[in-house]
Amino acid sequence: MKQQKRAGVVTMFLALYAFWLILASRFTTAQLIAGVLVAALIVLYGFDMMFSRDEASSLTIKRMWRFVVLFLVFLREMIKANIAVAIIVMSPKMKLEPHFKRIRQPLKKALNQTLYGNAITLTPGTLTVLMDSDSLVVHGLRRPNIDAIEGGAIQQAFVNIEEDGQ
């Protein structure tokens, strides 16, 4: 295994285990062992997808910073979307405009495309229903929200990460 892949495996394992510890309700021996096993199984199961020659990128300070920026942008957009959906649901006349839209896929790496599609789905009021290497089909509660996805902050944050990894 190359040094870069080995570092990627260790980094992914540690990140998953840290996430497990954050979610753990208590720190018993069984919980800690289960976390190690789950993190190891996820890394082993997703090894080919996450660490293929085409998908792997070097881990640099600049790249890690861009992931932090992506997380913060995603968090901000999720909060805005939660408020927008709450306003729609709580208003006496729900102003729904259910709509499907095909959005150009700006990313080249399959892992980034998958994460981008999932980020759209995790944002309240939107759902990625179809995805291929050229485009995504997104359903949303309101047309303006869907129109804002293409060229929006989340898309730009993903593009920045991919450009850095080239």
Overview features:
166 residues; 2 domains; 3 strands; single chain; mainly alpha; 3-stranded antiparallel beta sheet
What does this structure look like?
It is a single chain. The protein is mainly α and 166 residues long. The protein has two domains: 3-50, no CATH class; 61-165, no CATH class. It is 62% helix and 11% strand. The chain has a three-stranded antiparallel β-sheet with strand order 1-3-2. α4 (61-90) packs antiparallel against α7 (153-165) and α5 runs antiparallel to α7. The radius of gyration is 18 Å and the shape is globular. The model has no long low-confidence stretch (mean pLDDT 83).
DSSP summary, beta strand count? 3
N-to-C terminal Cα separation, in Å? 21 Å
Give the strand order of the largest sheet, numbering strands 1, 2, ... along the chain.
1-3-2
Domain count: the total is: 2
- Unreliably modeled segments: none
Mean pLDDT: 83
What structural category characterises the helix and strand content? mainly alpha
Q: How many H/I helices?
A: 7
User: What is the oligomeric state here?
Assistant: single chain
Beta-strand level of the residues, as a percent range? 5-15%
Order of helices and strands: HHHHEHEEHH
Main sheet specs: 3 strands, antiparallel
Radius of gyration: 18 Å
Q: Shape, please?
A: globular
What share of residues is helical?
55-70%
